[in-house]
Amino acid sequence: MQQSVDLANAIAKKIGQDKVTLVLLEGAGHDIEPFLLLNGTIHCGGQFDNPKNMNKVFSFLNKYLK
Fold this sequence. Notes:
Elements: H1 2-15, E1 20-23, E2 35-38, E3 41-43, H2 51-65
C-alpha cells in the first residue's frame, strides 16, 4: 500500500494533486493492491471489480473523459 501512496504523491508533485486520485481498498490483502486512477488510466488489483468500486471508476472516467 505504501508504494501506491508514494507513487500517487510523486505523480501529484509533477502534474498536480487535482489530477491524481488514489483509492485505497480497506481490508485488501498483500496480493490485492489498491487502484490508482490517473487521468483516465486505471492501475488496479483484483479486489476492485465490485459494483461500489466500479461506480467510483465510472464516475472518475465520466468526469475526465466527457
